[in-house]
Specification:
- The chain has 1 helix and 6 strands.
- The strands form 2 sheets. A 4-stranded mixed beta sheet has the order 4-3-6-5, with helices on one face.
- The protein is mainly beta.
- The longest helix has 9 residues.
């Protein structure tokens, strides 16, 4: 489901942490999808998965949104990441290649958009 397609009605109690509802057409499919497989996340809380939390990445642009990405190996066991070890997330998502520190997570911004 895209964030601009309206409200999706589904029983939230059936979602496990780190998942979002799967959509078939315009309806909830009855299944859940891992949030890291989605091209947006409703908020950074969706990235709080166990045992390995995902990184909340804010894509700064018109119509800004966030995604949940796996933590880069360069960040080690750090509970929070910064652009020092998380720049590779932005490098892998052009045109959002300019990294800025944010808590939680990082911001990947398009420098020319």
């Amino acid at each position: 489901m895209q964030p601009d397609r309206g409200v999706l009605q589904f029983p939230a109690a059936r979602l496990r942490p780190g998942t979002l509802p799967s959509v078939a057409g315009d309806c909830w499919s009855g299944q859940c999808t891992p949030v890291e497989a989605c091209n947006w996340a409703p908020d950074c809380a969706a990235c709080a998965t166990d045992p390995d939390p995902l990184v909340c990445v804010f894509k700064a642009q018109k119509g800004a949104y966030q995604v949940c990405e796996p933590k880069p190996a360069a960040c080690g066991d750090a509970p929070e990441i910064d652009c020092g070890c998380g720049q590779e997330i932005c490098d892998a998502s052009p045109p959002h290649t300019e990294c800025h520190d944010q808590t939680p997570g990082i911001v990947c911004e398009c420098p020319f958009c």
